[in-house]
Amino acid sequence: MASLKDIRGRISSFKNMRKITRAMEMVAAARLRRAEQRIEHLRPYADALRRMTSRAAQAAENIPNLPILEEKEQVERVGILLVTGDRGLAGPFNAQIIRAGNRRAAELRAEGQQALWYASGRRGVSSLTFRGLELGGSWTGFTDRPAFADARAIADGLTAAYVDDKVDRVEVFYNGFISAVRQEVRHETLLPLQQADVLGEEAAEEVEDEHRSALWIYEPDPEEILARLVPDYVEISIFRALLESTASEHGARMTAMRNASDNAAELIDDLTLEANRQRQAEITQEIMEVVAGAEGLR
């Protein structure tokens, strides 16, 4: 049984820990508000660019003869980008992305395909390196506040890998932000454009509905517009994934630190109750010893 001194030492340790977790919760909450604002500002632009790319692709009679728009006849190697964070202490935020990527890699192996890994964030890079997996590219040091230049660097690396035939398809995994306490793993195909989510069934139906209500006139022709839009589409898609991931990370860390603070408070209450009981037992024992000593003097 622990002594009263040991119990009081543990109480002091848990109180210090609760101060730290509360401070980290407050920092994460402040950063989350800024990240939410950035997402709100970006989403209309990203959605508009997505619609423009969908319209141009639907209107184009022939896909322009550009390497980035070339669809590979046979898919042998798939580039998988994992968007994680640079730091931990965020609950399952990083682990669920890595697990989703590993499940996708297992599916590819079952289909006779290989995965070439790309990672954004130190947690993803360290996890893939620890497992001895081949890394085609890595980007770190900006997950707390990613800039568009960071997304452009990632887009350039992935686009170069696709154009140079290092990969035949590019997919991305990231945490989509829903609320401060809820994030979901999202899986999107980025390249080639013919298989990308921008030309999925939902996007095609949306474009078709818009074409029913309006006649679109393209100047220059849709093929040239599409060739100009695709690089921007890749960059803005990655930038949106980075911002969504950043907000999700701050929300997950805020929730994790709040849970840690609550758990510390419960432990402090339990230990305080145990300390009071032990102290009461010691006082009772001392009283009994005094009484016994007084009776012995009679």
Percent in helix? 55-70%
Instruction: Identify the CATH architecture of the largest domain.
Output: 3-Layer(aba) Sandwich
User: SS-based structural class?
Assistant: alpha/beta
The SSE order reads HEHEHEHEEHH
Query: Are there runs of 5+ residues with pLDDT below 50, and where?
Result: 200-205
Arrangement of strands in the largest sheet: 3-2-1-4-5
Query: The biggest beta sheet, please?
Result: 5 strands, mixed
- Taking the alpha carbons of the first and last residues, their distance comes to 36 Å
Radius of gyration: 28 Å
Query: Which descriptor suits the 3D outline?
Result: elongated
In CATH, what is the class of the largest domain? Alpha Beta
Keywords:
single chain, 298 residues, alpha/beta, Pyruvate Kinase, Chain: A, domain 1, 2 domains, elongated
Topology at a glance:
Layout: H1 4-59, E1 77-83, H2 93-110, E2 114-120, H3 122-130, E3 135-139, H4 148-163, E4 169-179, E5 182-191, H5 201-213, H6 222-296
Helix pairs in contact: 1-5, 1-6, 4-6
Q: Can you characterise this structure?
A:
- The protein is an alpha/beta fold and 298 residues long.
- The protein has helices spanning 4-59, 93-110, 122-130, 148-163, 201-213, 222-296; strands spanning 77-83, 114-120, 135-139, 169-179, 182-191.
- The protein folds into two domains: 4-18 and 260-296; 27-254, 3-Layer(aba) Sandwich (Pyruvate Kinase, Chain: A, domain 1).
- The chain has a five-stranded mixed β-sheet, with helices on both faces.
- The two termini are 36 Å apart.
